[in-house]
Write a structure and sequence with these properties.
With about 260 residues, the chain is mainly alpha-helical. It is built from nine helices and two strands, in the order H-H-H-E-E-H-H-H-H-H-H. Strands 1-2 form a two-stranded antiparallel sheet. Helix 1 runs antiparallel to helix 2. The two termini are about 45 Å apart. About 30% of the residues are buried. Residues about 230-240 and about 245-260 have low confidence and may be disordered.
């Protein structure tokens, strides 16, 4: 039962990783879109020569918000002049680079998190199969033990109370085994589904990256950079395992290239 509980815990962790990685990528897209909108408005306001008080306040607010992600803009802001002392092209480049970085980091982190969990899930599926077989064997043994006791009751003259107690205990043991086997089969099924969901979400990272690029209108240069990152991602659990083994032989840790991007 403890073995089955461990399988269930890994399945729950997989569900959590799936949820967290999706939220992480979605949040990066939201942040990139926010930066894009703020950048467009910043350029628009920066081009206004004689700004009124409201426009100056809005510009200062946008600079303050962008400074958390792009400190260079805050450094170039001249409050007295009410202007960011950069060309529109320079501002656009900073905005594009930050959007690219947000998306690239989110995709890479999601890939790494899913990679790690896929390897755990693959092992968990194997453990689940073993637990299911062990539970089935235990059920057969309990069934056999009960049948032997029932046969002994038939052959024993009179009413042997001790033997009947043994039968009752054997019936309870059989029921416990059947319950454990049912749970083991359910968790094995869950482990198979969990692994497929991880693989599907991993496979969908390329599409997710393309969607974010489209929604945030990344420049062609930034798109090319992100495309090159996505091409480096493995395509299956088997490929992940091969990469892990190859890296181990070289004394390297799989995923270090992704982490260093």
């Amino acid at each position: 039962v403890e073995f089955i509980d461990q399988v269930a815990q890994t399945n729950e962790k997989t569900a959590s990783v799936l949820k967290e990685t999706k939220e992480s990528v979605d949040n990066a897209g939201d942040m990139a879109e926010t930066i894009s909108n703020l950048g467009s408005r910043l350029i628009e306001l920066n081009d206004v020569e004689d700004k009124n008080l409201s426009q100056r306040y809005e510009l200062r607010t946008i600079v303050s918000e962008l400074s958390q992600q792009i400190p260079e803009i805050a450094s170039a802001y001249d409050e007295e002049a009410g202007k960011v002392k950069m060309t529109n092209e320079q501002i656009r480049d900073l905005i594009e680079n930050q959007k690219d970085l947000l998306i690239q980091n989110a995709i890479n982190q999601a890939a790494q998190d899913l990679t790690n969990q896929m390897l755990d899930a693959e092992m968990n599926k194997m453990r689940a199969a073993e637990a299911m077989q062990a539970a089935a064997d235990a059920t057969k043994e309990a069934q056999k033990a009960l049948e032997e006791l029932e046969e002994q009751v038939k052959k024993t003259p009179g009413d042997d109370m001790d033997l009947r107690v043994q039968v009752k205990d054997a019936e309870k043991a059989l029921e416990t085994c059947r319950t454990a086997e049912k749970k083991a089969r359910e968790e094995h099924g869950n482990s198979v589904v969990a692994l497929k969901e991880l693989q599907d979400q991993y496979d969908g990272l390329t599409e997710a990256g393309a969607k974010l690029r489209s929604e945030t209108q990344l420049s062609a240069k930034a798109q090319e950079k992100l495309n090159s990152t996505m091409k480096a991602l493995p395509h299956s659990v088997e490929e992940l395992a091969d990469s892990l083994l190859a890296g181990a032989k070289k004394g390297e840790k799989f995923g270090s290239e992704l982490a260093g991007r």
